[in-house]
Amino acid sequence: MAVLLLPLLLLLAALWFWALPLLSGTWRSRPGWFVWTALLLLLCAVPVYLAGSLAGASLDPEEACHRAGQEYDRAYRRAHFTEYTRWFPLHDKCHAGYDLVPAWVNPVLVALPVLALLALAWAARLTLARRRSRKQGTLMHEKGTS
After folding, report:
1. pLDDT, tens digit only, all 146 positions of the chain
2. Minimal CA–CA distance to 18: which of 42, 1, 2, 35?
3. Cα–Cα distance measured from residue 90 to residue 97, given in angstroms and rounded to the nearest whole number
4. What pTM, to 2 d.p., does this model score?
5. Residue 90: enclosing H or E segment and its boundaries?
6. 93 has which bridge partners?
């Protein structure tokens, strides 16, 4: 029980500290917030990938197709063997017209890393802007005291 409770508490604490800048309105100027957002987005991709790869999870794909109310086309599966053994995009088709992997999985698996990259790029932009403003501030201070 403690093994399950500890990660849940850590996740809730991380979400709380991630949400604090949202509530206070300071998230726009914090590069660290965008880095944590990117990390959370990438972590969210893990259960999405698991949901897609375990869709119709069964050692017998024919049984999974029948449970989904679809016919199983053995010839189609043999002809498209590489399609359902790839890492990405995820597919587990019963026949040409039905995929056991939900339609939302592959677009979300693309969108989450793209959003994470955008968040990291914005964090880098904020960091560079801070450095420039500090550097200009010290140059102005040096010129004023000379």
Report:
1. 677 788 888 888 888 988 999 888 888 889 999 999 999 999 999 999 999 988 877 778 889 899 989 999 989 988 988 887 888 999 988 999 999 999 999 999 999 999 999 999 999 999 999 998 888 876 666 666 55
2. 35
3. 15
4. 0.79
5. none
6. 99
